[in-house]
Amino acid sequence: MRLYSLSVLYKGDPKVHLLKAAYDVSTFNFFQRSSVQEFMTFTSQLITERSSLGSRASVKEQEYLCHVYVRNDGLSGVVIADNEYPQRVCFTLLDKVLDEFSRQVSKMDWLSGSPVTISYAALDGYLSKYQVQTPR
């Protein structure tokens, strides 16, 4: 069971902005990592764009399950995991991340922010904390 991506986005009008993201692409071939990360960013934006405000959904994309939560205020989170990762845990993680993000980052920054300009460092920690280590 693995988590590959954890993203915070803003579903604005007319488009979706990626605010911050963390990725774990260590299980992929070195030469595939950037394209896999690009795919995950694109998929997160697309799923958020197609989801309505106040909704939660899980979407299968290739061999991944993408869990999206779009709050009524437009703040959105996406977790990309493998098929075995528990859905309930993903949505608990998204609730926690979005609540904390909205307390630490001003709503004014959601409209024009980007991963470079937003200072919120907790995503990498959450991604590794919620990573399920499988016995070898």
From TrEMBL:
InterPro entries found in the cross-reference section: Longin-like_dom_sf, Longin_dom
Protein name, UniProt field: YKT6B protein
Recorded GO MF terms: SNAP receptor activity
Locations listed in the record: Endomembrane system
Database matches in PANTHER family: SYNAPTOBREVIN HOMOLOG YKT6
Presence of keyword Membrane: yes
Ranges for domain Longin: 8-127
Signal peptide positions (record): none
Species assigned in the record: Hylia prasina
Gene3D superfamilies recorded: Longin domain
Membrane topology: Lipid-anchor
Any one Gene Ontology cellular component term annotated for this protein: Golgi apparatus
Domain of life per record: Eukaryota
